[in-house]
From TrEMBL:
MF (Gene Ontology): calcium channel activity
GO cellular component: endosome; presynaptic membrane; synaptic vesicle membrane
Record-stated family: Belongs to the calcium channel flower family.
Biased composition (Polar residues): 159-172
Subunit structure: Homomultimer. Associates with the dally/ magu complex.
Membrane topology term: Multi-pass membrane protein
Chief site of localization: membrane
Origin: domain of life: Eukaryota
Gene: LOC113203138
Alphabetical keyword list: Calcium, Calcium channel, Calcium transport, Cell projection, Cytoplasmic vesicle, Endocytosis, Endosome, Ion channel, Ion transport, Membrane, Transmembrane, Transmembrane helix, Transport
Name used for this protein in its record: Calcium channel flower
Length: 182
């Protein structure tokens, strides 16, 4: 058993299938979960920092900071329920989102990351919400699935729908005029 398989078994949720049902690479799953967990924590801290704008009578930055803290907490609840195991609803909310397709999670993260930046355009809201936005982008890419094979992509790109014959890469246009067909 390799090291990555051992780590995968440790990160596995209770009741989860040992064999994944989708074509998403393992590193992309861990990147999404890791960026969501770390980014949610950083977003909470930077939300507190943005909320200190109330000291300078910036009400919009206070609201943006509170929004960013709530968004960061929601991301941590979904991505790392072990961080909030003292709350009863966390595991059920995490399991609910685990059953949904990846684009639900990606769309949710992108939507909840935008209001804080719109309300208060500061470095803390851009960076904190940007990490949540990046997690949403990773889940959006995961929902696209695996890239097709070279033959499948060539068949989709050709106007006739048939797979063109492979061309010798060393042949130039001057040597073989049939290489380039308008």
């Amino acid at each position: 058993m390799s090291f990555t398989e051992k780590i995968g078994q440790l990160m596995q949720r209770p009741g989860q299938d040992a064999i994944p049902n989708d074509d998403v690479p393992w590193w992309m799953k861990y990147a999404g979960r890791g960026l969501g967990t770390v980014g949610g924590g950083i977003a909470i801290f930077l939300g507190i920092w943005a909320a200190t704008g109330i000291l300078f009578a910036q009400i919009d930055c206070l609201i943006a900071g509170i929004w960013q803290m709530l968004a960061g907490f929601l991301v941590i609840v979904i991505e790392a329920p072990c961080c909030c195991m003292f709350l009863d609803f966390v595991q059920s909310a995490s399991d609910f989102m685990e059953q949904k397709p990846y684009y639900y999670r990606g769309a949710l993260y992108i939507v909840i990351s935008l209001p804080a930046v719109v309300l208060c355009l500061s470095l803390s809201t851009i960076f904190g919400s940007g990490l949540i936005f990046g997690t949403g982008v990773i889940y959006g890419m995961m929902s696209l699935g695996k890239k097709g094979s070279r033959q499948d992509m060539a068949a989709m790109a050709s106007p006739t729908g048939s797979v063109p014959q492979p061309v010798d890469q060393k042949t130039t246009l001057m040597e073989d005029p049939d290489v380039w067909r308008p």
